[in-house]
User: What shape does this take?
Amino acid sequence: MAESEAKTRKTRIDEKLKSSLLNWTIIPNDKVSDYSALSAHAVEEYPTETGPADYALFVEGKLLGIIEAKKIAVGAENVLEQAKRYARGVPNTVGEWRGEYKVPFLYSTNGESIFHLDIRKKENTSHQLIDFHSPQALLSKFNRDTDKAEQWFSGRPVKEITRLRPYQIAAIEAIENGICNGKKTMLIAMATGTGKTFTLVSSIYRLLKSGYAKRILFLVDRRALAAQTVSAISAFETPEGLKLDRDYEVYSQKFKREDLDDGSSFDSKALPEEYLTNPQEKHTFIYVSTIQRMTINLLGKEAVADFEYDVDANKLDIPINAFDIIIADECHRGYSASETGRWKYVLDYFDAVKIGLTATPATHTLAMFKKVQ
Assistant: This one.
């Protein structure tokens, strides 16, 4: 017998929302006497002008999200229109966007697939998530002022970073234009020896300084590349005359002498685990990590048993909002199917803007990043 929508909601969607990583409290609408008193609640059958929404997400008394649920046999992506309809007709609201929507964050799900849309900008498009956002993550998304960041981009020309060449300036401008146009994936293709790392470190500075991003993950596939990247970040001088690692926290893993191409010693700071497991609005940092280490953090050591891994890494409970931006370096390499799968899983796991960096775009790279700049 096919699974009913009621069973999908109870056994799949409710369990995801109540998980220890999210901690939503599910409450029927008829048990709510004061919506302003709800702190981290998913209200079932929330009334709107066009019928009851399956779940309404309240954080600190604010209605921030609506979830449209379908049974598992129904595709989830195409039912966001129903969530949009509910968002137009809610009685309690924290604002109005695009002249019609009164709820900023929409979801559709069949208990397995989850699609999400930030309705506040018309340029935004829906994208698939691994999980729902936690109450804290949803509130953080609501509080982010991306309009102010976009104004900063337009008011501060990239060329004020004086060492940049014209093609590097064009690459950074393409990243910022893509972000302003709602793109979630971008690919920067630059030939070997043209300063890819310096270009991306310059972009990182602008992403942090503008306030668009607070938590940036820079992924590489070798420890030597991680060490080189941290060195490049530490050496970068901002237009204000400060070293980037003095302006912002920079973390990586501990390096050994053999991890560096020149055999020199290297002092690095390890990222506190709580920065991954409990991301906070007050945290602003750059984290340089190998893909192997991040895979272990998400899946455990057994996921990378086929090649050398970071033995000091462990599986952690990391929410999908741990990073705002992910930069994937050397994503063109000819990886095995299992290695490509690991890259894809890590990139797909986080609800972040993903920027690929490559010298020669490969088929698997284009499949992961889709958009080429």
Summary: The chain is about 35% helix and 20% strand.
